Amino acid sequence: MVVCIGRGDISAFTQVPTDNKGNTPYVQLDSTHAYDPLYPDSGTALYAFASVAGGTGHVVAVSTVARDEVTLDATGPATLVAFWWGDGNQYFVHQAVPGDGFTLIDSLLPLGSYVQTAVAVKDVAAPGTYHITWDSGGNEGAQLWLVAVQSVTIPPTLQARVSGGSVVISWPGAADSYGLEMSSDLSSSNSWTPVTNAPVVVDFQNTVTNAISQPGQYYRLRKR
């Protein structure tokens, strides 16, 4: 998840975004960019959260109300996300048209003295240096962000805790391509069997509860 935020009060960037899915904390990327030279007390910042738990109704918010050519080196296949921020006016509607193969996916360009924004994306298959040029339809101040979102496969981690006479096994809910297996003998590679209990999702974690019936029980995740 990549979030770009503009604020009329630049001091408010000490408060990071939050959401309604329990993802925390969002991490700021790079530094806050002041809207120099005209509005040095305003600015924009970029935040990210890896392996976000999202879904229908996912809302990212900030705790304060806003008052008011980019080049990137990608190290591998990635989705490039470009943000454009500009200042509107009451005389004509600005555009925010991305070039260089980027596709506009959303924009907020009200007529009047408002801060305007737009976002565009582009998928790239190879490492390289990429850039984007925006056409705003007129001269104005603007800030640009360009970020590469790359997928990194990290094996899920099992966690275990004892609860009464049972062991509670949990792993990330997003790891739906993995199945839980158990064994009582690590000396045999053929001793692993699937756990038949269907996992229950609790706080975005797959959870299985098994009775402790042997001196030693071992668990692992195996990709299906």
Instruction: List segments where confidence is low: pLDDT < 50 over at least 5 consecutive residues.
Output: none
Spatial strand sequence of the major β-sheet: 9-10-7-13
Question: How would a crystallographer describe the biggest sheet?
Answer: 4 strands, antiparallel
Number of helices: 0
Span between termini: 26 Å
Output the structural class.
Answer: mainly beta
β content, as a range?
Answer: over 45%
- Please tell me the total number of domains: 2
Could you tell me the radius of gyration in angstroms? 24 Å
Helix/strand order, N-terminal first = EEEEEEEEEEEEEEEEEEEE
According to DSSP, the number of beta strands is: 20
Percentage of residues assigned to helices: under 10%
- What's the rounded overall pLDDT mean? 84
Inertia-based shape: elongated
Question: Can you describe this structure?
Answer:
- By secondary structure, the protein is mainly beta.
- It folds into 2 domains: 148 residues, no CATH class; 65 residues, no CATH class.
- 0% of the residues lie in helices and 50% in strands.
- The protein is built from no helices and 20 strands.
- The strands form 7 sheets. A 4-stranded antiparallel beta sheet has the order 9-10-7-13, with no helix packed on it. Strands 14-15-19-18 form a 4-stranded antiparallel beta sheet, with no helix packed on it. Strands 1-4-3 form a 3-stranded antiparallel beta sheet, with no helix packed on it.
